[in-house]
Amino acid sequence: ECIYTKHLCLDGRQIHLEIYDPCSQPQQGKLSLAEELHWADGFIIVYDISDRASFAFAKALLYRIRESHTAVCKKVVESSIFLVGNKQDLCHMREVGWDEGQKLALDNKCQFCELSAAEHYQEVVAMFTKVLRNITSNFKVKEKRRPSGSKSMAKLINNVFGKRRKSV
């Protein structure tokens, strides 16, 4: 299976994660992720800094995510997207420069970092924590939206005809 689940507590809040890893399945050379892209609240796209082909795949995947969300939502993507260059411990074999990753992230309005999952698992934990905080802060912004029209109308009617108004 390519979906991993995890329950954790972040900032006093219980979070249920479902992580979809498309790379754990045979690829067949295409990006057929349409169904998976719709339920995600955030994306972490990882490429290998010592492998130009993985960077090209990450670039195509970023484009696919943007295209999919724009077509469905007809608006700017609200999902959190993080581009991660992995294997920073293999700098001597680097094929993709830090500036290339940074430019791709800026062009796609997503966050960027490079790390070494093999040598510094703390960097991976910190990156996931940052992603989760970003996603949960997006939920808080959505929760603070104004009430729907019917609630606003009910409040207006209550103010006009409510108990505060004295009969003449």
Automatic annotation (TrEMBL):
Keywords: GTP-binding, Hydrolase, Nucleotide-binding. GO terms for molecular function: G protein activity; GTP binding. Signal peptide: none annotated. SUPFAM superfamilies: P-loop containing nucleoside triphosphate hydrolases (SSF52540). It catalyses: GTP + H2O = GDP + phosphate + H(+). It is an enzyme of class 3 (hydrolase). SMART domains: RAB, RAS. PANTHER family: RAS-LIKE FAMILY MEMBER 11. Belongs to the small GTPase superfamily. Ras family. This is small monomeric GTPase. The lineage of its organism: Eukaryota, Metazoa, Chordata, Craniata, Vertebrata. The gene is Rergl.
